[in-house]
Structures are given as C-alpha cells and as structure tokens.
Amino acid sequence: MLRLLRIDLKKLVNYRAFWVLNIMYGLLIFSIPISVMEFLKWLKEKGAELDGFDPMKIPVLHFPDIWQNITYVYVFLKIFLAIVVIISISNEYSYKTIRQNIIDGMSRVDFIKSKLLTILLLSLGSTLFVFLTGLLTGFIYTPNVAVSDMFTGIEFVFAYFLDLFTYLVFAFLLTVLLKRSALTIFILLLYLPIEYAITGNLPESMEFIAEYFPLHAINNLIEFPFAKYWFQEIQDYVSLSAVGVVFVYLALFIYAIYAKLKASDL
Amino acid sequence: MDTVLKIENLTKQYGRITAVRNLSLEVHRGNVFGILGPNGSGKTTTLGILLDVIKKTSGSFSWFGQPPTKEMRKKIGAILETPIFYPYLSAVKNLEIVAEIKGAPVDRIEPVLKKVELYERRHDKFRTYSLGMKQRLSIASALLCDPEVMILDEPTNGLDPQGIAEIRELIKQIAREGKTIILASHLLDEVQKVCTHFCVLKRGSLLYSGSVEEVNKGVESVEVIADASDMEMVLQGYPMAAKVVEEDGKYIVTLENGARAADLNAYLFSKGITISHLLTQRKSLEKQFLELLAESDNA
Ligand SMILES: Nc1ncnc2c1ncn2[C@@H]1O[C@H](COP(=O)(O)OP(=O)(O)OP(=O)(O)O)[C@@H](O)[C@H]1O
Ligand SMILES: [Mg+2]
User: Between the CA of residue A198 and those of A190, A241, B84, what are the distances in Å?
Assistant: First the structure.
C-alpha cells in the first residue's frame, strides 16, 4: 500500500503545477478567516447605519459556530484539489505512462489504488489544515474560550473530509472516462449547474429524489449556516442520511473506475 | 527445452479489424525470437496482449507455464513501440519509479545508465533527450530488473548506425547470458543478425515460424565474372549447378544443396577458365520473407 502511494508521490513531487495549485489552495484557506475579520472591522468602521450594532460581535468565527461556517466556505475551494487530481491522472493518459506502469508490473487495481491513496492523502492533509486553521482562528476570535465549545460541531470537519474525498474520487472517475484534462475540468464545472437544472425541473411528486443526486448528496453534508445570523432556522448538524447516500456514491464511483479500467486497452 | 512463452489461438478484434488472428506460438528459454511482419500485421498488438495492456478477444497464453500475472511482468523488461517516461522527470527519477514498481534495487540504476551511455545526462529531464537517447533510456529501463525475458518492439528505431550496432551487441550479450528475448522488427537483416528463431505475421495471421539457422543453411548462389567466350556453356555443364542466369555480364549460378563456391571455382579452373570476380550469396532472410509474403498473396 505504502509502496503504491510512494510511487504516485514520486510522479507528483517534481511536477510544478502540483505545487502551484496546492500552495494557492493553502493560501486561500489561510487568508479567508483573516479577510472575514477585516471585512467585519471595515463594516464596524463604516457602521453608522447599523444602529450601534457591533459587527465584530457576530460570532462567525467563534467556537462552536466556526466549524460549520468555515467548512461550508472551504468546500468551495475543492476545485483546486480536483484540478490537481485531474491533471495527475490525465497526464498518465497523455504521456501513456499508465501503459508503461502496467507493462512494468503494476496491475490495473494497483494503479487505481495508488491514485486513490494520493487522493486520500490530499483529502486528509486538507482536512488537517482546515482543522488547525479553525482551531487557531477560533482561539484568536472567541472572547471566552470554553473547552466544551471548542469541539462542539467538530463533525463538520469530518463532513468536510467526506465531501472533499468523494468529490475528488468523482473527478478521478470523470478523468478516466474523458482522459483529457481541459475537457474533464470543463465537464466537472459544468456538471453542477446541469445537476441543479435537472433537479430544479423535477415534477413535484419526484422532488424528493433530488437529494439522491451525487452533488446534491455531497452538498447536503454541510448545510448553509449563515441564515441563523438573520434568525432563520438552519440545519446545524450533519445529516446521517446524507452521509449514507455519499458513501453509496463513493462505492459506486470507485466501482465504475474499476470496471472502466479493467476492460479497456491502454 | 523449457517453454518460456506459449500462445494458443490468440485473437484480437478491433471492431471489424482482426489485428491478431488465431495465433499460436512457442518461445523457448534462451531463444532470441524475432517477430517479423509488414506494418499493421499485429506485432505490437500481440506484444501488448502479452503485457496486459491490450485485452485479448479470445485465446490464451502462459509465461513459464503459468497464467500471466503482474509478478511475472515484474521479471520482464519490455518496451512497446515508443519510449514512455514522465517528460518532466530526469532519467534517474524515471528509473526510480520503474524500480519501485518492479521491486528492483535502486542501485541497479547507475550501472544500467552507464551501460546505455546516458550516465552523464542522468539528471536531465527526459523531455530534453534526443530520440536515440530516449530509446536508450527505455533499454536501460528494460534492463533494470535483470530480466528473465526481454520484449523489444523495434528497439533500434531512430538510433544512429553506431547506436544500432551497440544495441545489437547488447542484445547478443544479453542473449549469451541465457536470457530469452522477443524482438519485433521490420529490419530483416537485424533479425537475421541477432535472432535464433523468427516468425512471420501478416494481417494478424502466422505465416511461418522456424529457426534462423535453417535459413542460413539454405542454398548458396554464386556470382561469377570471367573473360571466357564459352562461359555459359561451361557453367551449364557443371553438374552441381541448379540454375544459371546471365545478368549484365555476370553469371549467377544457383548451386545444388551441399555444393560450395570453392567447388565451382575448382571446376572452372579445371576447364581452363580463370575468374575475375566471385561473390557468394546465401539466400537471405529478406528473400525468404518476401517469398513467404508473395506465396500468401497467391494462396
Ligand atoms: N486502438 C486500435 N484501434 C483500432 N485498430 C487498431 C488499434 N491498434 C491497432 N489497430 C489495428 O490493428 C492492426 C495491427 O496493428 P499493430 O500495431 O499490432 O501492427 P504492427 O505489426 O505493430 O505494425 P507496425 O510494424 O507498423 O508497428 C492494424 O491494422 C491496426 O490498424
Ligand atoms: Mg508496431
């Protein structure tokens, strides 16, 4: 297992685009909480018409709100990692190195495993980074840190991981089907509006199936949190049924990758 | 003799095209086995199936009497068509990946790079190599695992004459170590020089399979020039001459099996004719190859 991961990392560590995308991604994660606070400060300075309300008091980055808030925002950045995954796999097709890997003695399953392990590592790394950023930000901005609050809502970090990992596996599947990187990125970006267009036009009696569409299921893991600041009801937990649906899709995606690679000429 | 590779009734269909048709072959240990055939005859497809990158339509094959596995491929050094490497990685980094896949020791990298004379350029990116250098790197990569069997698909393609001679020498050297080599090529003269056995494919079907030695043992023909007016008559009178043809003042005498050019020379001398030119020609693999193809066209 580790050997397969090592092989795939050897292919990546000397690849410039890999670092460029990862660093951009990391910088964005790090800079978002800072910009949010700067924005709130700016609001406060401008805050004449806010009836003496202090925007800095909105607990956006306070424990325990922070977990759902930041993970909700951070999942939008997953496209960066999806591009890393798409490039890493489409390169194997365009350079034909997937062919040579098999000739040299990898099985097709080994190839899939080595890519999945990299995806797992990227997802875990990103999750850890988000967790640490959340912890740090929470410490800085929460007025009175109570340990009991700190880890309330931590399941959103797990949901973030599942969301990211499944999305990257979906990108893997699309690349195996389409092979070319630009086309795959384009289709991946286009897929979300298409899915929402389909579910938006479902007849009323069928509307309940919307949540079973793949990206709906993934997006249902972390619900929109900010409405609570204008006193609307939100779902402030990770729904187990969404987790279940996502696991089913994860298994389906991996099986589809396997079925496609097993039967094809390389 | 140990059977290294046994192919039985292998067929590959690409839609309506049959790239390999009902192919059966055996390769034994220590053979240098040439696969000949015109463009599109199914050489690469056959080798691709043997290496699991192309899925067969039907038939079977076995390596060392075992069904094919990835473990078996780790002991095969193989190049298919063009050299394939990560263009943004250096030779060393590329070979590290191959070594990791094959479970070969990393300290083999230095000697194989020296063997193909790429050691000086080992830290340059693959993308910056010339075609010949790429070809050499793929040979280095095939040698990395100290393979039991080497599969080479047109290994001298794109090399300079010196490179061609070196690769051929390398192939012979590896063959002398008792390794089995399977070599697909268009270059008949290459096959004749390095192979012990060969087969001929055409449009996916096997036309012929046999040893190169048999071809070399074949009839001799002798080209002679002499300044004698009765030359033709004298030659016709030679009992060991199967056929005599005149061509631009030269006579080409095809000898009966067993007769040698020296015998012909002695005969002419006894008839009082001194010759000014004598050239022996074996029936070449090329001739045999073209004959086989022509026969199959007539059939
Ligand atoms: N991916 C493919 N799809 C459709 N047909 C293919 C494919 N690959 C090969 N073929 C066909 O299979 C036949 C055999 O091709 P192959 O590459 O095995 O020939 P070859 O003997 O290696 O030729 P060459 O000497 O030119 O390398 C050809 O007719 C070719 O057009
Ligand atoms: Mg070929």
Answer: 13, 22, 43
Token pair listed for A167: 């999305």
Quick check: is B298 in a domain? no
Segment B245-251 shows an average pLDDT of: 84
- The CA distance from A248 to A232, in Å, is 31
CA distance B166 to A246: 58
Order of strands across the sheet that contains B17-28: B17-28, B3-14, B58-63
Which of B14, B53, B88, B123 would you mutate first to test chain A, the one with the most A CBs within 10 A? B53
Cα–Cα dist A163/A157, whole Å? 10
Predicted confidence at residue A5, as pLDDT, reads 95
User: ipTM, 2 decimals?
Assistant: 0.89
Quickly state the pLDDT bin for A53 (edges 50, 70, 90): low
How does pLDDT run across A149-195, given as a tens digit for each residue? Answer: 788 888 999 999 999 999 999 999 999 999 999 999 999 999 999 99
pTM of structure: 0.87
Q: What is residue A55's predicted lDDT score, i.e. its pLDDT?
A: 67
Burial bucket for residue A135 (CB in 10 Å: 0-12, 13-18, 19+): middle
- The residue among A88, A104, A108 with the most chain B CBs within 10 A of its CB, best to mutate, is A104
Same domain assignment for residues B102 and B9: yes
B109 assigned to some structural domain: yes
In this model, does residue B182 exceed pLDDT 90? yes
Nearest CA to ligand 1 atom 3: B14
Buried b (16+ CB within 10 A) or exposed e, A137-172: bbeebbeeeeeebbeebebbbbbbbbbbbbbbbbbb
Q: Decide if A265 and B55 are in contact by the 8 Å CB cutoff.
A: yes
Q: Are residues B225 and B92 in the same domain?
A: no
Q: Could you tell me which of B106, B130, B105, B104 has the C-alpha nearest to residue B117?
A: B130
For chain B, the C-alpha Rg in angstroms (whole number) is 24
Cβ–Cβ under 8 Å, residues A114 and A101:
no
Residue B288 domain flag:
no
B147 with B200, same domain? yes
Q: Looking at the structure, do residues B78 and B24 belong to the same domain, yes or no?
A: yes
Is B264 in the same domain as B124?
no
On whether residue B293 sits in a domain, the answer given is no
pLDDT tens for each residue of B108-150: 999 999 988 899 999 999 999 998 899 899 999 999 998 989 9
Is the Cβ–Cβ distance between B220 and B234 less than 8 Å?
no
* Contacts B70 to A, Cβ<8 Å: 105-107, 110
**Is the bond leading into A64 cis (omega within 30 degrees of zero)?**
yes
Give the residue numbers spanning the domain of B245. 219-282
Q: Are A167 and A82 in contact (CB under 8 A)?
A: yes
For ligand 1, the distance from its centroid to the CA atom of residue B127, given in whole angstroms, is 26
The C-alpha of A101 sits at a distance from chain B's nearest C-alpha, in angstroms, of 7
Q: Domain boundary residue among B192, B215, B238?
A: B215
